[in-house]
Design goal:
The complex is a heterodimer of chains A (205) and B (75).
Chain A (H helix, E strand, L loop, with lengths): L4 H14 L19 H10 L9 H4 L14 E6 L4 E8 L1 E6 L2 E5 L6 E5 L2 E7 L2 E7 L2 E5 L4 E6 L2 E3 L5 H17 L3 H22 L1
Parallel strand pairs in A: 1-9
Antiparallel strand pairs in A: 1-2, 3-4, 3-6, 5-8, 6-7, 7-10, 8-9
Chain B lengths: L13 H4 L4 H13 L4 H10 L2 E5 L2 E2 L2 E2 L3 E5 L4
Antiparallel strand pairs in B: 1-4, 2-3
Classes of the chains: A alpha+beta (205), B alpha+beta (75).
Subcellular location (chain B): Mitochondrion inner membrane
Pfam families (chain B): ATP-synt_Eps
GO cellular component, one term (chain B): mitochondrial inner membrane
Chain lengths: 205, 75
């Protein structure tokens, strides 16, 4: 069933853009200029000529920014946490994100990707300066127009990590892992070991 | 997160196999990282973990007395 998915998706996309709708266009493909429903506006003006017609959610949506035809020279990064915005609209040369599939380097012109992040180091490279953060987990969305949105639950600059606490945590959780009985305890201990070893690697690497 | 053609033989992460959801996993990771910080940052981070909410069960169309749950990270 899933093997047909790419073929069906391509059919739907072509139908939307070509005008002849074989399948429905994606709802996120908002047209470049927001359109108003003229029939509704006419009917509204007849009934309530002095009131402005209400705006629909579609008119509030910003149209999808166009993918530039040539690869931009810089990557725009937005890095947000639930309680603050670490980096907002900064133009950099490269970011390296700790994806579950390994450290992934993102350059301008990177293919659009959604990556789940594992606990690890995120580094932002701009010219010669490198800023490193330790990310607990999150997602990285790289868009086709060289904008990268990274969201994390918790991220700290590497110099705020206390090495002794990391070692202690690693020892604790390794011990818990060997003495764990239920599946859930094993999973929690494993998570502890993973996070603390990643913290350790970030401090020494 | 690719799945094999033959239905649900996808490799699941170990925490999901143990019955944990992604949100729980993510929150556990975050609180472990918060616990490894140097001092002034550690106490600031501890304030981020506080939860305070009230739950009331409904019976016969009326809310019963709400129970207030106020968690601090030490639990």
């Amino acid at each position: 069933m899933y093997r047909q998915a790419p073929r069906l998706l391509i059919r739907a996309l072509d139908g939307g853009r070509g005008g002849r709708l074989i399948g429905r266009a994606f709802s996120t493909g908002v047209p470049v200029a927001p359109v108003e429903d003229s029939a509704f506006v006419e009917a509204w003006k007849k009934v309530a000529p002095n009131l402005e017609p209400p705006k629909t959610p579609l008119s509030f949506m910003k149209p999808r920014p166009p993918t530039p035809s040539s690869i931009p020279s810089k990557l725009t990064v937005n890095f947000v946490l639930p309680y603050q915005s670490e980096i907002s609209n900064k133009e950099v040369d490269m970011v390296i994100v700790p994806a579950t599939t390994g450290q992934m380097g993102v350059l301008p012109g990177h293919v659009a990707t959604i990556a789940e992040l594992k606990p690890g180091l995120l580094s932002v490279h701009d010219g010669n300066e490198v800023t490193k953060y330790f990310v607990s987990s999150g997602f990285a969305f790289i868009h086709a127009n060289s904008i990268a949105d990274i969201v994390a639950v918790e991220a700290v600059p590497v110099d705020r990590i206390d090495p002794s606490l990391v070692q202690k945590g690693l020892a604790d959780f390794t011990q818990k892992l060997s003495s764990a009985t239920t599946d859930l305890e094993k999973a929690e201990a494993q998570i502890g070991v993973d996070v603390h070893s990643a913290l350790n690697a970030a401090l020494t690497g | 997160m690719a799945s094999a053609v033959a239905g649900s033989s996808a490799a699941v992460p170990f925490w999901r196999a143990a019955g944990m959801t992604y949100i729980t996993y993510s929150n556990v990771c975050a609180s472990l990282v918060r616990g490894c910080l140097k001092e002034p940052y550690k106490s600031e981070a501890a304030t981020r973990e506080k939860v305070h909410f009230a739950i009331s069960k409904w019976a016969n169309g009326k809310p019963e007395k709400p129970t207030i749950r106020s968690d601090s990270p030490e639990e």
